Write the structure tokens for this entry.
Amino acid sequence: MIYDERSRVLVLRLKYADRTDLAPLLARHMVRAGRELLAEADLLVPVPLHRGRLFRRRYNQAGLLAVAIGRIAHLPVVPDALQRVRGTPALARLGAAARHEVLRGAIVARPSRRERLAGRRVILVDDVMTTGATLGACARAVLAAGAVSVDVLVAARASDPARMGSDGGRTTGA
């Protein structure tokens, strides 16, 4: 989807308002949009949350989406393949350069999951892609673990990250 006022409501409810029931709905749309990618993939990996943020939120919205997509597309999900080894501030108010800098070295492949990634075609799953900084950090970690390819599937995508407001409300599409 394009990350506009309508899709933003859905994504933010999933992310912050405990509307985990929205994950299957968004996943169905993601499966339709990513049909070709999913047909060539070996496994799905959600973008990780830092353990402190996961504790506060109680769930990882990217993980919920990945599990729902995996069920529909009959693909395995490795929910803990990646880890945030240090907390990062909320990225919504940061520009692209600052996001890339904040994420440098913050996401790595979990050592015990590296063999699951090696030689595989991986799809990273997230709720929203704005500048691509988080997904880029995840892709670098997956490739460093030996994945042969990495693609991205998101519920919503900023069509122009430069137009994103300071509150994180970019226009995006998946």
The beta strands are 43-46, 82-84, 107-109, 121-129, 149-157. The chain has one domain: 5-159.
